[in-house]
C-alpha cells in the first residue's frame, strides 16, 4: 500500500504539470496517464519484493523517457527553455521597435505572437515533476514553437530594416531636393540682382579688379563707356544688331563667355571685359576711342 500511495502521488504531480499543455496537446495527457498507470502497475506487481520492485520502477521510468537517460532529457529541456526565453525577449523587443519606428511595413506582419511559446515555457517550468516521456515530447514541441517565433522575428526584422532603409533614402532624396531648390532659388536671386543696372555695375567692378587688376580709375571709364552704349541694360538691343550691356555685334559673339549670354548680365560683362582687354588694353583706352569715333 505504501508503494501504491507513493506512485499515486507521483502520478498526481505529473498530472498537475501536464495540465498546462492539455488544452492544445490532448495526446500528451493520454501518454502521461499511461506512464503513471504503468508506474502503479509495476509497483503493485512487485510489492512482495521491494528491492526488485524499486529497480524495475527505475527501469520503467527510464523506458518512458526513451532511449536517452533522464539526465540528458532534463538538460535538453533546460537548453530549450533558455532558447525559448531568448526568442520571446527578442520578439518582444522587436515588437516595441516596430511600434516606436512608426513606419509603414506594408502588408507584412507587424508584430509577433508569443503566447503559445509563453505557454510552453510555463509548462517546462514544471519539468522537475514531469514524467520523462512527457518532458521529451514537451521539449520537442517547445523547440518547434521557438523555431517558428525565431523565423517570424527574422522576417519582421527584415521588413523593419527595409522600411528604415526606404525612409533613409526618401529622407536623403528630400534633403537633396530641398538643397537643389535652395541653390536654384539662390541662383535666381543672384541673377535677378546682377540683371539690374546697379547689380551689373557691382559685378563689373569686382570682375575688373579680380580678373584684370583694374582699379576705380579704370572702372570710371568703363562705367562711362557702357552708360553710353546700353545704360547697363542687359536687354539693350540696337537695330544694327548690337546686343546687351557691351553692345556686342552680333550678340551671339557673347556665347563664348556662356550659353546664357542673352539672359545673364554677368556673362555679358565677362565677354565685354575680355573684348576690351584684347582690343584696347584698358577700359580708359576703349572709352577714349569711343569718344573720338562714337564706337569702340
Number of helices: 10
Uncertain runs are 1-67
- Order of secondary-structure elements: HHHHHHHHHH
Shape: rod-shaped
Cα-atom radius of gyration: 46 Å
Largest sheet, in brief, is: none
- Summed up, the domain count is 2
Our estimate of the beta-strand percent is: under 5%
Q: Mean pLDDT score, rounded? A: 83
Q: For the terminal residues, how far apart are their CA atoms?
A: 133 Å
Structural class: mainly alpha
Task: Report the count of strand segments.
Answer: 0
Helix proportion: over 70%
Offer a few descriptive terms.
single chain, 296 residues, mainly alpha, 2 domains, transmembrane helix, transmembrane
Structure description:
With 296 residues, the protein is mostly helical. The protein has two domains: 2-166, no CATH class; 197-293, no CATH class. 72% of the residues lie in helices and 0% in strands. It is built from ten helices and no strands. It has helices at 2-18, 26-45, 50-64, 70-101, 115-124, 132-194, 197-212, 216-230, 265-279, 283-293. α5 (115-124) runs antiparallel to α6. The longest helix has 63 residues, at 132-194. Residues 1-67 have low confidence and may be disordered. The chain crosses the membrane at residues 27-49. Keywords: Membrane, Transmembrane, Transmembrane helix.
Summarize the structure.
The chain crosses the membrane at residues 27-49. By secondary structure, the chain is mainly α.
Amino acid at each position: 500500500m505504501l508503494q501504491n500511495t507513493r506512485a499515486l502521488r507521483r502520478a498526481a504531480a505529473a498530472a498537475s504539470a501536464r495540465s498546462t499543455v492539455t488544452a492544445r496537446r490532448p495526446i500528451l495527457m493520454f501518454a502521461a496517464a499511461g506512464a503513471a498507470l504503468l508506474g502503479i502497475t509495476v509497483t503493485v506487481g512487485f510489492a512482495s519484493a521491494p528491492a526488485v520492485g524499486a529497480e524495475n520502477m527505475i527501469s520503467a521510468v527510464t523506458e518512458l523517457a526513451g532511449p536517452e537517460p533522464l539526465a540528458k532529457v532534463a538538460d535538453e529541456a533546460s537548453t530549450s527553455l533558455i532558447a525559448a526565453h531568448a526568442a520571446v525577449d527578442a520578439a518582444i523587443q522587436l515588437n516595441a521597435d516596430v511600434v516606436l519606428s512608426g513606419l509603414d511595413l506594408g502588408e507584412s506582419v507587424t508584430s509577433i505572437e508569443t503566447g503559445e511559446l509563453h505557454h510552453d515555457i510555463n509548462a517546462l517550468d514544471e519539468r522537475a515533476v514531469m514524467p520523462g516521456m512527457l518532458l521529451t515530447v514537451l521539449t520537442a514541441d517547445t523547440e518547434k514553437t521557438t523555431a517558428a517565433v525565431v523565423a517570424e522575428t527574422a522576417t519582421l526584422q527584415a521588413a523593419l530594416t527595409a522600411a528604415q532603409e526606404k525612409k533613409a533614402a526618401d529622407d536623403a532624396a528630400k534633403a537633396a531636393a530641398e538643397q537643389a531648390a535652395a541653390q536654384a532659388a539662390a541662383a535666381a536671386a543672384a541673377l535677378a540682382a546682377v540683371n539690374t543696372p546697379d547689380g551689373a555695375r557691382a559685378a563689373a567692378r569686382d570682375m575688373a579688379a579680380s580678373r584684370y587688376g583694374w582699379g576705380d580709375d579704370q572702372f570710371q571709364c568703363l562705367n562711362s563707356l557702357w552708360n553710353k552704349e546700353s545704360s547697363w541694360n542687359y536687354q539693350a538691343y540696337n537695330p544694327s544688331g548690337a546686343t546687351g550691356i557691351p553692345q556686342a555685334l552680333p550678340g551671339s559673339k557673347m556665347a563664348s563667355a556662356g550659353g546664357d549670354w542673352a539672359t545673364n548680365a554677368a556673362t555679358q560683362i565677362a565677354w565685354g571685359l575680355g573684348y576690351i582687354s584684347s582690343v584696347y588694353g584698358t577700359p580708359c583706352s576703349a572709352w577714349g576711342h569711343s569718344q573720338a569715333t562714337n564706337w569702340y
